[in-house]
């Protein structure tokens, strides 16, 4: 039996199955995509309260309304002028949005900008580290719009000018880097050391939760004692390390249950549970549904 991999929202599957290249609201190639109106796209791909994994990184910013979503377990509420830089392989889940919500987006394969690897924000993006949430000033928002539509106009030239698009995307990322560094210089937006450690912990949970569910493993990665890590995480988020780990495993489970043809026992094995029964009990305890019930919901 051929088993499909879990569905990733990638340029390839969007190009092949969901989106017609170069239509009114979107333009997609194998290594770059741009969407001028997320809400006007006609796609059966996205549903609220359902997690998806993004293969490529994304530059996303809201232009109207408001959306509440989770990215790798962290919940955000984004409104006009809020920009998100999403690392590759992030898991997103949209919880709710207002009727007037709208956003613009770019999807960029790592190889598309691999020659840029020195800048701090580019390390966030290329290095697959934590995601970036950045409120923009009115001036910064207007400049981001100008970059976006310059790229939008360029991709619609008769011949796809890849090098020009690469340079414009790079310029946009460098501008985001400048905005971020300026924001960090502002004491009001500077994270405490505990908050920075917590975000590093969440990034590690996202990377390793399917195979490592021991507090000591994450404490060792962060050069902390397990007791201190638990205290830090609890003080920062009001949840324990194990509660975060369990939530991460549930999200991974949901992605596999909804977007693959893996059987429950195969999912249990993939997530390193000792047996399918243990996985089913864990999933029901966390969600109130059995894995089969969730698949059919």
From TrEMBL:
UniProt cross-references to Pfam families, sorted A to Z: HTH_18
Q: What are the alphabetically sorted keywords of the record?
A: DNA-binding, Transcription, Transcription regulation
Give the matching SMART domains. Answer: HTH_ARAC
Respond yes or no to whether keyword NADP is given for this record: no
TM spans (from-to):
none
Instruction: Please indicate if the UniProt record lists Repeat as a keyword.
Output: no
**InterPro entries xref list:** Homeodomain-like_sf, HTH-like, HTH_AraC, HTH_AraC-typ_CS
The protein's superkingdom reads Bacteria
Q: Name one GO molecular function term.
A: DNA-binding transcription factor activity
Q: Domain HTH araC/xylS-type, which positions?
A: 199-297
Write down what this protein is called.
Answer: Transcriptional regulator, AraC family
């Amino acid at each position: 039996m051929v088993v499909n991999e879990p569905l990733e929202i990638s340029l390839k599957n969007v190009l092949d199955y969901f989106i017609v290249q170069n239509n009114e609201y979107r333009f997609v190639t194998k290594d770059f995509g741009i969407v001028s109106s997320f809400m006007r796209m006609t796609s059966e791909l996205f549903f609220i309260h359902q997690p998806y994994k993004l293969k490529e990184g994304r530059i996303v910013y809201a232009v109207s309304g408001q959306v509440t979503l989770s990215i790798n377990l962290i919940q955000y509420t984004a409104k006009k002028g809020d920009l998100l830089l999403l690392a590759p392989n992030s898991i997103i889940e949209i919880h709710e949005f207002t009727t007037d919500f709208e956003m613009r987006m770019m999807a960029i394969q790592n190889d598309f900008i691999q020659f840029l690897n020195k800048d701090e924000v580019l390390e966030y993006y290329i290095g697959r580290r934590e995601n970036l949430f950045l409120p923009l000033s009115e001036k910064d928002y207007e400049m981001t719009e100008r970059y976006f539509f310059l790229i939008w106009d360029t991709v619609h030239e008769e011949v796809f000018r890849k090098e020009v698009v690469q340079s414009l995307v790079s310029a946009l990322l460098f501008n985001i880097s400048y905005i971020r560094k300026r924001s960090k210089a502002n004491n009001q937006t500077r994270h405490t050391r505990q908050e920075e450690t917590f975000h590093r912990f969440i990034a590690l949970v996202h990377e390793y939760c399917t195979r490592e569910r021991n507090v000591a493993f994450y404490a060792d990665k962060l050069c902390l004692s397990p007791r201190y890590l638990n205290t830090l995480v609890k003080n920062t988020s009001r949840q324990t390390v194990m509660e975060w780990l369990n939530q991460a495993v549930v999200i991974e489970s949901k992605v596999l249950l909804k977007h693959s043809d893996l059987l429950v026992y195969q999912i249990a094995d993939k997530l390193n549970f000792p047996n399918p029964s243990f996985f089913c009990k864990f999933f029901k305890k966390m969600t109130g549904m059995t894995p089969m019930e969730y698949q059919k919901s």
